[in-house]
Amino acid sequence: MPTDTLAAFFVAVILAVLGLSHLFHPRAWADLFKDLLTRPYAGLIIGTFTLQTGLLVLLAHWTWKSTPGMVVTLIGAAWTCKGTLYLLHPSLVQRIATPHLGHPGRFRIAGAALLALSTVALLDVL
């Protein structure tokens, strides 16, 4: 399997599983972040995993053509930027996430968006 196809499948699966989890367990996600954000190093934890995943996607999937595959590259770029920002400014995650934690329904909206992006990423695989 070519690496760009593998990367697209990787992103599609991550987005689908996270999207379903957000849809089915919004309160658990809110509680997870409430707990995590009490720690001053929360941005470092989130940033480390997000940066690594984003870089992996970018290294394997560098497509800037106007196709569904470009969404995979954009997601990799977004994860890389987010991870870098959180690692360089760990307190940023508190400012971004805290306003949403009292509204678990927003995690369902995020889950639906993740599933939609997963579908687009799968179009690059097919």
In short:
This protein is mostly helical and 126 residues long. The chain is built from six helices and no strands. Helix 1 runs antiparallel to helix 6.
Explain the overall architecture:
The chain has one domain. Helices cover 79% and strands 0% of the residues. The protein contains 6 helices and no strands. The relative contact order is 0.24.
Taking all residues together, what is the mean pLDDT? 95
Structural class: mainly alpha
Helical fraction equals over 70%
Domain count = 1
Indicate the low-confidence ranges by residue numbers: none
Proportion of beta-strand residues: under 5%
- Termini separation: 12 Å
Comma- or semicolon-separated keywords:
126 residues; mainly alpha; 0% strand; globular
Please give the structural blueprint.
Blueprint: H1 3-24, H2 26-36, H3 42-60, H4 68-88, H5 92-97, H6 105-125
Helix pairs in contact: 1-4, 1-6, 2-6, 3-4, 4-6
